[in-house]
Amino acid sequence: MARRATGTRKLVVTALAWAVGLAIFFPILWTILTSFKTEAEAIASPPSLFAFRWTLENYVEVNSRSDYFLHFMNSVVISLGSTLLGLLIAIPAAWSMAFVPAKRTKDILMWMLSTKMLPPVGVLVPIYLMFRDFGLLDTRIGLIVVLTLINLPIIVWMLFTYFKEIPGEILEAARMDGASLWDEVVYVLTPMAVPGIASTLLLNIILAWNEAFWTLNLTAAKAAPLTAFIASYSSPEGLFYAKLSAASTLAIAPILILGWFSQKQLVRGLTFGAVK
Amino acid sequence: MATAHSRAAARVMISPAVILLLGWMIVPLSMTVYFSFLSYNLLMPGMEEFIGFGNYEFFLTDPAFMEALVNTLLLVGGVLVITIVGGVGLALLLDQPMWGQGIVRVLVIAPFFVMPTVSALVWKNMFMNPVNGLFAHMAKALGLPPFDFLAHAPLASIIVIVAWQWLPFATLILLTALQSLDKEQIEAAEMDGASAFDRFRFIVLPHMSRAITVVILIQTIFLLSVFAEILVTTNGGPGYASTNITYLVYAQSLLQFDVGGGSAGGIVAVILANIVAIFLMRMIGKNLEA
Amino acid sequence: MTTFIRALLGATAISLAVSPALAEKLTIATVNNGDMIRMQKLTDDFAAKNPDIELEWVTLEENVLRQRVTTDIATKGGQYDVMTIGTYEAPIWAKQGWLVALDDLGADYDVDDLLPAIRGGLTVDGKLYAAPFYGESSMVMYRKDLMEKAGLTMPDAPTWDFIKEAAAAMTDKGNEVYGICLRGKAGWGENMAFLSAMANSYGARWFDMDWKPQFDSEAWKATLTDYLDLMNNYGPPGASSNGFNENLALFQTGKCGMWIDATVAASFVTNPNDSQVAEHVGFALAPDKGLGKRGNWLWAWNLAIPAGSQKTEAAKKFIAWATSKEYLELVASKEGWANVPPGTRTSLYENENYLEAAPFAKMTLDSINAADPQKPTVDEVPYVGVQFVAIPEFQGIGTAVGQQFSAALAGTVSAEQALQSAQQTTERTMRRAGYIK
Description:
The complex is a heterotrimer.
Chain A: H1 7-34, H2 39-42, H3 57-65, H4 68-99, H5 105-115, H6 124-133, H7 140-164, H8 168-176, H9 181-210, H10 214-217, H11 226-231, H12 241-261, H13 263-269
Helix pairs in contact in A: 1-12, 3-12, 4-7, 4-9, 5-7, 7-9, 8-9, 9-13
Chain B: H1 4-36, E1 38-39, E2 49-50, H2 54-60, H3 63-94, H4 101-109, H5 116-127, H6 134-141, H7 149-152, H8 154-179, H9 183-191, H10 196-223, H11 228-233, H12 245-255, H13 259-288
Chain C: H1 2-18, E1 24-31, H2 34-41, H3 43-49, E2 53-60, H4 62-74, E3 82-86, H5 89-96, H6 116-121, E4 123-124, E5 127-128, E6 131-143, H7 144-149, H8 160-170, E7 178-181, H9 191-201, H10 218-234, H11 244-252, E8 256-262, H12 265-269, E9 281-285, E10 298-304, H13 312-322, H14 325-335, H15 352-357, H16 361-370, H17 394-410, H18 415-432
Parallel strand pairs in C: 1-2, 1-3, 7-8
Antiparallel strand pairs in C: 3-10, 4-5, 6-8, 6-9, 6-10
Helix pairs in contact in C: 17-18
């Protein structure tokens, strides 16, 4: 029997959902709109939503002041690199936790998560000294390593919960057929786990892209990603709302677009085992 | 069922992750512990000397410490309450049939993709600024005096900003959980005359409890170390009104360059975080049993 | 085919030979202030003169920059070849042996042309350790039109009492005109720069000769009470989060009657491109309280080379370029004389073109000359520095005290409480650092 999903009800729900959605999205929309205003219009009272003279001057200014493309590429390389490296380490770990659980599996998992609670500021000086000694300061490699380690617990956990939902019998069957462990992982497990891996990958790219403590503190010019690019636009002299908006839009646009296009994949695996 | 062979293999496969994380934890942590017993200021090299628990005493007797501790708990708790209540509400709303569901969902999850620094800058300047911010313009239009959010309600303002960033995450996880709910169960209850509230209370909420646990766990991990938002908006002030433990450690080690004091603070923060973690596990751990 | 390959190889060889293969890359850390951003845009001129040196810029917000460069120099991280540092850091770092002495910036550099007050703050044991890029003091900037409307005239050297009277007369909250805008954002370089300088004119000091904090003195109490009184009655809303930049934006959009802040702001507020009130701005010396000291500070942003840098020679070339007389002329030719970085060279203040283009020039010079880092306040002090105390612990103390005063401005604590906590925090840290036995 169909529910009494009358037209009115759907209309009300739609109106409400759109209102809430737009309200949540509004700060981002406002930033994007402001980036096309002049500095004077950006603080004009009363502000105008669309009725202003659209201009690209802020984008021109931002690009003449900083090398957006370099920062963008650094962000791409660092977030993608740390994610792939993280997956490489986490997939075997999560596999063995999910399919060969030992008594301590859950403890190990919780311990891994607890390493994320280490406040980064407390260990900056030791890390900085180590980076200096290994020549890793201001290198993409150094940042990839740090971000991999920071996000590894989340990756392992996400994959673990996802792998657990894969029925063990299939693996048993493969083993009966004489598949080696390697074959098992590569030909049986991985294809089934692709949605989970994909969403882990996406979530981790987002986390790495937005990480702002290590990326800012361990880089100078060469490896600085977009988080450092933004740091040069926060409270400069004079009117800056429009320029700040343009820089912000440039910094978040790539990840926002990626997130939107891949939201289905992201959501599918983003359950952390919460769905039975 | 697992053979000795596969057990050994499993151990090999898990070891890179464990060893790396162990290294990542132990090496900086032991250096931090070591520094925490030294009188070590970055600006005065060559003056390091062992001072026992002096740094811990200094950090713990800081008048700001208790306030920071309370602020940390308020921040974590406040954001959790907003995101979970809001997330459940949004998930219920988004689960209904409507026109343009895909677009609405895209709008709702967008804040999750925004860098903390950017969202703090945008909120601080373009919304909460009492002269040029949008809220001030709105207050003016209504004939009200503008409210100075970051001066008079600093912690609450930061909670709102952080909650805005995390609401999409909570919504997504809760929505996924909701969608896995057996709709027939609801319909059966409806036939039996259960009110909408009862259906929510006795069927929907228990079904989502696991997802709520996950949201609490993951968000707590991230919320304990909220930092960029505070640095950008209030610098922990006015006074210590919006200083949390992480920010206090930052002030000690990177504003005063007091590595010894900062390290002691770092260790204290780790211990506190672990206490919270143990609490969490106790309270909700059974929900994660799988 | 082979010819093609040969041609390709040849082309590669040529391009390798032509491209500055041995180019040295200098990484320069700097603040995102207007004058530095301008310098960044003018580097083509430097590149043309020094084809073998490439420049890489790291432009950061002031607080982030300070934290980054301090961490780097203290751990000898070596990430930067040229650092932008303040007058506060220069002597402390030089004493630690962290900076390269700049005693040979070339024959044309004319080091004696640097303003003595500014140069003095950057010199340790007779050697210059940082070259000033721009220097500043603080002064009163006010709206002539609003003063006229209020029926008042600003004297060249006002008192705090007059400032209060003028602020009251100019305030028109209904039209969003606030009589006075002052710094309120917590930070040793933000509200404490202003308040320490103001306190000096009230006869207050940070420490007595035994390094005992003085926040329990009557002079500090009077300073803070008057400051709160001014800001609460005639200041803009949200003043406790306003720093230099926020106030600049307020003043440029016509929301402030008076603004007491850095002299460098003068060129921004009189520039019609950025400022809506450009033609109405007047200047006066920072106010006094009749005690013989004015509430103005002394600061410069300087370029310095960290010790241990492998590229000292190239870095010196860059510093000599960026702080030279020729650089001033370069900026003048591109952006007009009013926009050259001020406050570093005597010759600039003797230049007719500059004096004509910059109505604030004389007031800036007088303010800089009126500040005395060796004797900042009425009573004797054990430290150097006008709006700061040149000891490593000051950043932390200054910011903690700034937090208290910012809270007092926000109204969450009373002036008494703020002073009391300031006294306690400072004493605690000074005791720990061993100044107070």
